[in-house]
């Protein structure tokens, strides 16, 4: 099986992404050579997934240096523009800020271009290493010879490595622990149906797709022994923002005494957010809800409530799997401990 490469780096030139809005029907790659192109790709979800957005943000700073020059003002302006494109994912701003800091530490503007490309390449390598470490730590938590439920897409397409939650699922499958994976469609943009099922098929993992509205019934049926998702931002107390619908899964899992796990790198934690109420939630366009792929099934002009994320309270989370360790409640203490080592 060929590795999935959602992003390729071409130092001195730009980056190339796998356009995720076209999957699974078409595997098309798109070259990004300007900050505007990077921001458009992020905003339209051509490239997505919190950890991969961190890498894309770092790459975007190198693209900015090639396009606009590497002076302080040019880089700071580009950083603000890229980081603001999607506000909920902590990794995007973190990747941008880290790349900017690396560049500003180099006094020579011309040298900064090389610094930024080197930073992006190293960032990609670290993503791969962290994903694998997270997967190895998390795999033993999944039910032996059992089934799990996951939501949205958290595989290679979302990180550039092997994935977070889907990386844990992959490692458990490769170790012979996991028998089956259930995946929600993840409306309204169908990341589970289009992307997760595509990855699961490529990995050879037995999988079943279900409508989001069937998830509570599936959990209640006893067919799954755990629910595992990724995260876009984790507050200091463990409250976690993830794809909308995650909160409902966690609540139903708690009702039926099934463990609910979060899998995310430490870069997703935001100790500046004391709790979930401080996490900014992105709202997306009304027309995403009333149709898909150019086809409408609701009347034109229909208003929609379309948050991209919801917040799962820490009290519903059994454990948070990171690349360093598995965090358990009380999360205020375990998160503070792991972040002190970041």
CATH architecture of the largest domain: 3-Layer(aba) Sandwich
- Remind me, CATH topology of the largest domain? Rossmann fold
CATH homologous superfamily name of the largest domain?
Translation initiation factor eif-2b, domain 2
The strand line-up of the biggest sheet is 6-5-4-7-10-15-16
Beta-strand portion reads 15-25%
Radius of gyration: 19 Å
Distance between the termini: 34 Å
Strand and helix order: EEEHHHHHEHHEHEHEEEHEEEEEEEH
Oligomeric status: single chain
- The averaged pLDDT comes out at 97
- Find the count of extended strands (DSSP E, 2+ residues): 16
* Uncertain stretches: none
- What composes the largest sheet? 7 strands, mixed
What's the structural domain tally?
2
Can you give the helix content as a percent range? 40-55%
Number of helices: 11
Shape summary:
globular
Q: According to CATH, what is the class of the largest domain?
A: Alpha Beta
Question: What does this entry look like structurally?
Answer:
- The protein has 342 residues and is an alpha/beta fold.
- It folds into two domains: 7-132, Up-down Bundle (Four Helix Bundle (Hemerythrin (Met), subunit A)), CATH 1.20.120; 136-339, 3-Layer(aba) Sandwich (Rossmann fold).
- Helix content is 40%, strand content 17%.
- It starts with 6 loop residues before the first strand and ends with a helix.
- The mean pLDDT is 97.
Draw up the topology in text.
Layout: E1 7-10, E2 14-18, E3 29-32, H1 35-43, H2 50-68, H3 72-83, H4 90-104, H5 109-138, E4 146-150, H6 156-159, H7 165-174, E5 178-184, H8 191-203, E6 207-210, H9 215-221, E7 226-229, E8 233-235, E9 240-243, H10 246-255, E10 260-263, E11 269-270, E12 291-292, E13 295-296, E14 309-312, E15 319-321, E16 326-327, H11 331-339
Parallel strand pairs: 4-5, 4-7, 5-6, 7-10, 8-11, 10-15
Antiparallel strand pairs: 1-2, 2-3, 8-9, 9-14, 12-13, 15-16
